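Sequence, structure tokens quoted for completeness.
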Amino acid sequence: MAREVINRALRVLADLLEDTDHFCTFTLTDAAIGDDGVEPALNTLIADPFHAESLTAAGDWSRIVGEALPMRFAASWRRPQAWAEGAGPRRLAAGLTDWIMAHLVHLWPADADCWTVRVNESKVYENIYLDLAVRVEDRLWLLHLGVCD
């Protein structure tokens, strides 16, 4: 249930950013971790023809997500008034981020193993992105936050 709620909030946040600036793809997916380990599970979550090029231990997932959402993806050069302190879109984006974070804590313990993922970009992947892989027991979660234009 939490995954669906998070994905809905991510879609609304992406739509808000699209309405004010540019097209975003924000998703949360998960897969079982088999005997082969984290990387094969991760590559099932990354869209073909891409694959994980490297994983970097990230430490505190909540800090990373909190720093990325939403302002890392707000292109203030197009409509700076939309992202000014106190502006409606910025307040809504901050509220959506709080909502997403409140639900992520139900899925991911504070001490969960997590990695930032660098994706092999033999073709264009995303202009700006954050892929965060989080391991919880025998599941691997991938939070993809990307700007396509």
Notes: The longest helix spans residues 88-107. Residues 1 and 103 are 10 Å apart (CA to CA). The chain is about 35% helix and 25% strand. The beta strands are 24-32, 52-57, 113-119, 128-136, 139-147.
